[in-house]
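User: Please predict the structure of the protein below. I'd like the answer in structure-token form so I can feed it into my own downstream comparison script.

Assistant: Understood. Taking the following sequence of 109 residues as input:
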Amino acid sequence: MSSYQLRAESKKLKAEADAELEPLWQRVSRVRENSHQESTKHERYCREQRELLRALEDLAANERMMYELDNRKDQIMTACKLALANLAMWVRDVRRVGAYEILAKDKGG
């Protein structure tokens, strides 16, 4: 075989190999792109998680002590205020009735 025939045969085999490899290289390119997108997504999720953990740490550091309220005195005071208001209304009603009785005696008698 002459060098021309070898070169032609070599070019032909290379073209066939390139034709077979082209869909594979396209697939490799798609897989790389998909991998890059997933890697970017992973980095974003990691960043968000780090920010959330920092925020939780800051919240824990700035947390103020919570105290349980003892509202028994408030309830007693509310009951006393209610009783006093009821007493005041009862006294007002009794005085009014008494005043009407006095007026009725003065007019009638």
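That's the full token string. DSSP finds two helices and no strands in the chain.
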